[in-house]
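Batch 3, record 17
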Amino acid sequence: DGGITQSPKYLFRKEGQNVTLSCEQNLNHDAMYWYRQDPGQGLRLIYYSQIVNDFQKGDIAEGYSVSREKKESFPLTVTSAQKNPTAFYLCASREGRALLNNEQFFGPGTRLTVL
Amino acid sequence: AQSVAQPEDQVNVAEGNPLTVKCTYSVSGNPYLFWYVQYPNRGLQFLLKYITGDNLVKGSYGFEAEFNKSQTSFHLKKPSALVSDSALYFCAVRSRGDSNYQLIWGAGTKLIIKP
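Prediction for the assembled complex:
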């Protein structure tokens, strides 16, 4: 899982609560990503950021929010507006935002369960 | 629309036999192609990528993949499977000419290696 940490590993949320998932990288990567993974499905992109103080919506951004105030940090907030938030959340980073051939490095993931 | 297909949800192979995990893609322009592996409740690990040049790409843990432009395929292979290769495998693609920095992901193939 390299130099990307995600916390917590497991998270339980009551309906109507907002929760924030942490993602930190010490790889000095410019780009960072948040994915959602559901059983039997591939990865779906929630948000991504190519540079500090800038981020773009992915395919399933509704009900989520992010910030990128520091290069090494890209926290994801799952809001109460997200109707089905129970899933495995993966954070990734990539070196060189303009280098499209670079691979992404992934954190260990956070499993969010709504009670 | 750009897409990646992994036609097999699951592949079963006896230990010591060769394995193949299939991936086909549809993108505009020439692709960058990637394979990742995911062990249970873990993040994804990068295995290998095709950028340009030799169609046969060698990667981590003895895996290799062959890029076939005419068949738009990038199948993952290993000459002799190990029980420890059992995991979920993802193929991903990005078009070189695409200013969008997103990867297009396949749905994943579960590889089961039986002793």
